[in-house]
């Protein structure tokens, strides 16, 4: 049964290993999320045929990186095989200490930066330990990216990628806006280490197909921002984007699986 047929029949697909490259868990202080715990997330993932999600706790990205990273590790261990953690680095909350504490922990397969939430530019020196770690290990770094941001627009992404050509940088939201998508594509064309991550409210299947056409499916990864954004809507945009089966499988999970393999045993 094809993945499109599974969706139309409201059945979880099993043909493609889907990996959500951008997810969160737990309560968020600014608005109510009905059920953001890992058990509820797994139930939705199962209904959608999503095998795995890479996530950071809301606590880590917003208020407390130390306790939030511990929460992320606990969530990963509570559902073996379903989650990989992003180690959140807040530039104001002991980046070196957090990398030392969690850098070797197999619960974590990537690093998460959110310059907009942390009021600190992606290009700032407080992130230097992150780029050193990423270049040394191959650990992918997911950063928020948004056109026009004073902290993480595509110019910031390009500057960091140029400085650190061996780092694998996931541009979260792929620039966030229609103009941002164009700028994200152009940035990735100039910077081979940049991979576009798809979550957001403004992109379409056509935008996704354009990214893949310009960069190749090995430079674009599916992410949903679940439970901020409905996983089903985010997934549907990729499934019905008109990509070939091979490219769609890479975007939905193959490329992110490969990026996670720097950590022995992850993403397999």
From TrEMBL:
Pfam families: Amidohydro_2. This is Amidohydrolase family protein. The keyword Lyase applies. Coiled coil: none annotated. Residues 19-261 form the Amidohydrolase-related domain. Keywords: Lyase. The lineage of its organism: Bacteria, Bacillati, Actinomycetota, Actinomycetes, Streptosporangiales. InterPro entries: ACMSD, Amidohydro-rel, Metal_Hydrolase.
